[in-house]
Amino acid sequence: MSGNGQRYNVGGILLERPFKIRRLGHFGFNIEKLEEARHFYGDLLGFTVSDKADFSRAPWFPKDLAGEAQGYFMRYGTDHHAMVLFSKKIMDQRADRKFVPGITINQITWQCGSLREIGDAHTYFQEQQVRLQRVGRDMPGSNWHVYVYDPDGHTNELYYGIEQIGWNGNSKPRALYYRGFQEKPELPQMSEAAEVAEAEAKGIDIYGGNRPAAPNGGVKYDVDGVLLPRPFKITKIGPVRLFVEDVGRAERFYTERLGLKKSEESDYKGARCVFLRCGAEHHSLALYPTELRAALGLSAHTSCLSFGVELANYAQLREAVGFLKASGCELLDLPPELYPGIDYAAFARDPDGHLIQLYYYMEQVGWDGRVRTSAERRPVRREWPAALEPLADTYTDQVFQGPFG
Ligand SMILES: [Fe+2]
User: Fold this and answer.
1) In what side-by-side order are the strands of the sheet with 345-349?
2) Can you give the pLDDT of all 405 residues of the chain as single tens digits?
3) How distant is the alpha carbon of residue 372 from its chain centre?
4) From the CA of 26, how far away is ligand 1's center (Å)?
């Protein structure tokens, strides 16, 4: 039994928890070198700033930091944000949220299937004595959410209904933020269409939000037929790789409380590594013992081994490696045993020392839950071939839904 023995009706389906995580929705870091990170994640990797963070109205906000950049909400698709960068200096002063030293992950954020699931998740976490951080609806982004801590102190957010950015790139204007919630909302709530109609009736300029500036760096790369400032396009985010104090304890939290499923575990030089999924992807979250960090020579300032970004295809991944090296990024290889289910991949270091894993393919797990054996997987060659043979699950996951840029 992985739940608490009870069953919950989730949209007419009886589950062990009153919610079902469907995918990794977004992720964030608290960053020391914020402007360098904006360049790395923005100009180099291609995340677009949807809105700048502005905490200056929060009661805890340190007035002496008023002039400083506070952070960026960034996207690669239509979700208002997929990646957030917040100033570590400012986050360290928050009175309403405490970050454990050594945790530079701002949030690991999971999308559920409905608003009802979020409220029911909050009740469930209270009953199960999971450490809650807050519940409500934050602006910008408009997603309805509940925040909990994992046993190591990583913030996990479950949400429904993040703001979608459309063809013209406009985010919601600040004047619409009055629909934010600092507490659990009563259900049902008005639809977003009704919110927009209400705002117009109040005379609010619904087009008054942020629109990104034209891309930096010139538009000179033909990315499978579209001209972009870099020779690749991020089409998905995740997996998140975490160093944890006790792998078994973290595994129990993420499987029993959040409902992730174990795809496989591996032994890497005596370290037990666990790979967890929420949908058909081999893993969206991986757990590693903290002792492994020094053995791998990774930065001791963070519990994040890496954060993944999937590129549209293998050819773009090859181009990305050359582009990032030429742009002055440090790239490194990590042993493939640390990421089963992915074949060709590269790790780039962000300005604070976090690793970003670039890859193009993830093994898809079907109805019977079986994963490939290592003998059935594609061997990764030291010299990357110009082209690869397809696998049974190549290009079978959901394609990126909009234009590349
Ligand atoms: Fe979030």
Assistant:
1) 261-268, 271-277, 285-289, 234-244, 304-311, 355-359, 345-349, 331-332
2) 456 789 999 999 999 999 999 999 999 999 999 999 999 999 999 999 999 999 988 888 988 888 889 999 999 999 999 999 999 999 998 888 889 999 999 999 999 999 999 999 999 999 999 999 999 999 999 999 999 999 999 999 999 999 999 999 999 999 999 999 999 999 999 999 999 999 999 999 999 999 987 766 678 999 999 999 999 999 999 999 999 999 999 999 999 999 999 999 999 999 999 999 999 999 999 999 999 999 999 999 999 999 999 999 999 999 999 999 999 999 999 999 999 999 999 999 999 999 999 999 999 999 999 999 999 999 999 999 999 999 999 999 999 999 999
3) 25
4) 7
Task: Determine the distance separating the centroid of ligand 1 and the alpha carbon of 237, expressed in angstroms.
Answer: 14
Counting every residue, how long is the chain?
Answer: 405
Q: How far is the CA of 64 from the centre of ligand 1 (A)?
A: 26
pTM above 0.70, yes or no: yes
Cα 342 to ligand 1 centroid, rounded to whole Å: 26
- Rounded to the nearest angstrom, the distance between the alpha carbon of 178 and the centre of ligand 1 is 18
Q: Domains for the chain: give ranges and CATH numbers.
A: 8-213 (3.10.180.10), 226-376 (3.10.180.10)
* Bridge partners, 306 (sequence order): 241
